[in-house]
Every structure is written in C-alpha cells, then in structure tokens.
# Entry
Amino acid sequence: MNTETFGFTVLRIVLALGLLAGLGFAGWRIYSRLPEGDSIVPQTVASEGRAQTRLRIVLGDGLSAAALSSPVELYPFDLTAVQREYQASPQLAKTFDAFLARRMRGVTPVHAPTDPQGRAVVSVGAGSWWLRAAASLASGETIEWRLPMTVQGREQTVELTLENAYEKTKKF
# Structure
C-alpha cells in the first residue's frame, strides 16, 4: 500500500468531516436564532404554547354616544397593504371584502364581540396584529379604524379615538 495515497485519503476524510461539522454548526446557529412564532398567523389558543394577551378594546372620550356597529376584527397581517394591492388591480375581485376573503386563503379573523358599552375583550397570541372596527354616531356618521398593533404582555388596552380613526364618513 502506498503511504502517500493513504495519507491523502486520511486527510480527505478529516477535511470532509470538518466541513460537515462546520455546516452542521452553522445550520444549528441559524435555527437557534429563528423567532419562536414561525407562522404568519398568531395562535389564539393558549394550549398551543404561545403567550396569550388579554386585549381590551374601548371607545375613547368623545365617542360616548357612538356604538360599535360590528364586532371588532383582528387580522394577523397588514390590511393597508392588502387595500393598496386591491386598488392597484380592482379587476381581481368585485368588492374589497371579497378580495380580502380570497387574500386570507381560508384564515378567518379573530372576532371580538362588543358589549352594550362598546367594549370588546379577546385573548390573542403575542405578535403583530391589525385591528378593524367600525362605529356609528347618532348624527349618521360612520367611523372606521384600521390600527397596527404589537400585542405583548398579559393585558393590553387599545383605545379607539377620533385621532386614530382610519376613515370618517357621513351619508346624506
């Protein structure tokens, strides 16, 4: 047996094992730094292991006469970006709601029903959410909110005011 060939074979094996170990270590470091919530849809059930936040949604001062006209909806994505996409190509769907339903690909929003005082309480997973709500005033005006939120901690309160409203309309 040729000792020079044997030496090169051993060197190749050692270098190959070192390369595999280096690749394995690099993959492990990348994997260990990934965020825990790998889904774009935050989990809403506490038994699935994610932190739950009790989110309280209230109407602010100056809106005491307003009544939320629909349940508050919480979406796990950017509604403004979806609306821009809809406006860029309106032929894809007849209405924004139809476009939104198709864009969600079967994922339903988290609905937070309101009480008679216009408050809503819901438990959601920590992370980025978009809130959508609408309220009607006695004057016939309608106010709509589309708010980005970062949900964290055990409890959080979101106040819906005229200052953070997305749109205010009036029917004549």
Observations:
- Residues 1-34 form one domain.
